[in-house]
Amino acid sequence: MLFLKQIRAHGFKSFAELTVLDFTHEMVGIVGPNGSGKSNITDAIRWALGEQSSKSLRGAGLDDVVFSGSANLPPQETAEVTLVFDNSTNVFQKWATPLVEITRRFNKKTRDSDFYINNERVKLKEIQDLALETGLTKSSIAIISQGTISKFAEAKPDERREIFDEAAGVAKYKRRKREAQTKLIKAMENYHRANDLTLEIEKRLPNLERQAHKARLAEAKKTELQQFEKSILTLDVQSYQKRIGEIMEFLPNIETEVRQLTNDLQQSETELNELLKDNSLSGNTISNLNQDFQKLVEKISDLKIQKTAAEEHENQQKQNNSFANLQADKTQRDFANIKNAQQMETDRIREAKNNFDRLNEQYDAVNNKYQNLRQELEQLQNTEGPLTYRLTQLRNQKVRGFDKSQGYQAIINNQKNLPGVIGSLKDLVSVDEQYQIAISAVIANTLNAIVMRTNADVKASVNFLRTNQLGRVTFLPLDTLTPSTITGSTATMIANQKGFLGFANQIVKIKAEYQIALDYALGTVIVVNEYDDAIQMAQTIQNRFNIVSLTGDRILPRGAIVGGQNKTSNLFQTPRGQESNLVDLENQLANLYEALKIKGQALHETKIARDGLRDEVNECQSRISIGNHQIQQYQKQLQDLNNQYLALTGKSLLGNSSQAQQTLASVRLAKEILKCESQRDDLQNHINKITLAKNKYAERQQELNTANQAKREILNNKRSHLTSAQQELTLIEKDNSAKLAKLQADYGLTLETVLNQKVEGFTDEEKVRERISILIQELRNLGNVNYDSIAEYQTEKERYDYFKQELESLFQGMKNFENIIKSIDQEMETQFKQVVDDVNTVLPEVFQKLFGGGDANLKYTDPDNILETGIEIRVNPPGKKITNINLLSGGEKSLVALSVLFSILKVRPLPLVILDEAEAPLDPANVERFARYVRHFTKDSQFLIVTHREGTMENCDILYGVTMETQGVTKMVKIKLVEAKQLGISEQQVTA
């Protein structure tokens, strides 16, 4: 079956130019040397089918899929791959065309990554859907590489089931399950969100319902109130207007009477005021005279007291002057004492500052010494790590050397008991010292190989190693070795190159009878002087042979370079030399530890000295600070004493002056007392005269007060009547205006309309007013009323009913999704079990064909949980009783993995299978068996095989050769088998 018709690649990895591969046969081989770009064909197919992992494409990022340029070609900006598939059997059901072209294009500059099907742009998901339909997915067996084989063979059971999932078509069910789970999660989130909103509304509804009920009740009462209120307000306004007219009629008469009474009373009050004024003046005069009289009496008393005080103060001043003189003398003595103490403290501070400077210099010197010692100690510590690491490496190397030589040594020690043992290659050869590093680099893995006389002799030695579990040893049987050497014109051309020193098999010396072993190991190795010579030689011979320099740098066939310095560069060095290096390192490390100990002790002692000096510096600094504070205290005390002394001396002088003044004051006060007593007697006579006139004014005042009192009572009555009428008028007008304004605002009635309106509809006005009061009180009792709550309650009730319906719908949706997931799980379990059962049916037959016998089967690790169970492979190779695959050799593991994969392919054929060096681990016989078995599947599947094995190439219908005429640029050509053998890698070279 031909499914993949063509591959076109341009700018993808090493396909710099447009490369077209047409497939006309069911089994196509792709061959070429390593590094030529064979696997890039597989990568191109995977990339075009939507592979997103750069690591899976052997790159670090998407830019790595674009051709990066070569010596002759510039870098490309765009990578493009097109796959042309045969759709005549309607494999791609969505695309009803005979051919389906899938294209992927990436532009490095614009970062655009586009997919096309039949030149129609599509999304990545559509490409992945096509891959699922055809089984060409990452986890399927459509692409089998050497890595796939080893990974499948060594995988854990739960990892191994991925391939069976793909074979069962479970991937599409898993995707449907993921989609259903995503929708279920979204439905659950919507359900919880709607439920939260419903609960929130449900909490609010009772309160809103109460508020709405209250609002409707208030509206009903307000309507009833307004019906009664309009009529009552109309009656009130009409009544008020009538009363206002009545008051306005009698109010002017009362005002006239009040004015007349007021005038009469004012005239009487004027006369009375004159009398009061005269009487008041007389009273004021008497009061003023009495005040003057009293002041003279008080002044005379004060003068007498002052005279007595002056005499007493004179005596006290005499005593105070004597005490002040004594205090001034004491203050002078205290001032001198504090001045001396201040000077002593200043001297102590000066001494402390000198010590502070001296200690600071000592501290800096010791601290510098401490820092230098610490740097020296750090340098020694930095040296310790590399030495310790090198010593550990040498010790480990010594141990590893013993481990590696265990089997080899056992063979040598039992040489007499084992037939055909000649000796190790290392013991049989001799190498000049200048070539030892170069030869060691080339045959490191072969140097301890045991040279045997015949192939038959090897079996006894192998059985001896296996029986005693002594590891593995390489044997070189002289009768079956096929040496490869450089001869003829090629050898002559090489010998004429710059830096050529010789062929390794000629430089190394060995007995002639064992030369074939040396030719096998070193026959194609060229020894040159230095690295640059090796590079030039490789270019000349086009990287066909091994080249090694004297320093051990190697250039392998096909261009790989091995360089650097190995820990054991010279394998010919004696164990005694290695032991000497170990002892030298141990001595160096011991000396280093002693130096570290001495430096550490010196550092510790210096730190103690430095810390002691720092404490002394801090103590000096503290003493200076305390001293400065004490001097400030002394300075304040001196200032206080100086002020005290000045005050005392000034007080003494003032005291003497005050004493004289007090004596003069006593004389002056005696004269003043006599003068004031004379003035007192004159004032008393004047007061008596004015008192007689005042009594006459009082009699007339009494007469006027009696008459005015009668007039005032009449006037007050009239005014009271007037005020009552005015207040009544004001209240009626205010109440009337308020009620009229309410009628205008609430009912649109004017004053004229109200006065002309006849009120009807009720007979008992008092009951109506009582009902109005009741309604007003009931409205007050209702408190704050939210009239918007009626509409708000209706809105929230509608929202609540909507969310309740939505919750029911979401709940039903979640049940549906759960049923879908359950159905998908059942379908996946059925499909998976069917595939495993089908594979188990054919696996024994396939296993026997690939192994030439034996048996194999698959087991569930968890039979009760098919959706999560892993897959174990139980095998019994011919002649062995092994059930665990991990106990098999690498080649046997590969055959087991291929048996299972071919069994899957047999029960679930794929239209296209890509084998990328899948048979690489197999020996030639098994390769031939593998290739012939692949041929059985070509009826249902097309095979694209990347290989370098002759057995596989011989069974392919056609071969494509992959070359790199220009470094970094892949070319594809159809070739014959003999050309493929020359272009590919021989199995002997692979084994070597």
UniProtKB/TrEMBL annotation:
Keywords: ATP-binding, Coiled coil, Cytoplasm, DNA-binding, Nucleotide-binding. Residues 251-313, 342-383, 624-651, 683-717 form a coiled coil. ATP binds at P33, N34, G35, S36, G37, K38, S39, N40. GO terms for molecular function: ATP binding; ATP hydrolysis activity; DNA binding. It is found in: Cytoplasm. GO terms for biological process: chromosome condensation; chromosome segregation; DNA replication; sister chromatid cohesion. Its main location: cytoplasm. Contains large globular domains required for ATP hydrolysis at each terminus and a third globular domain forming a flexible hinge near the middle of the molecule. These domains are separated by coiled-coil structures. Homodimer. This is Chromosome partition protein Smc.
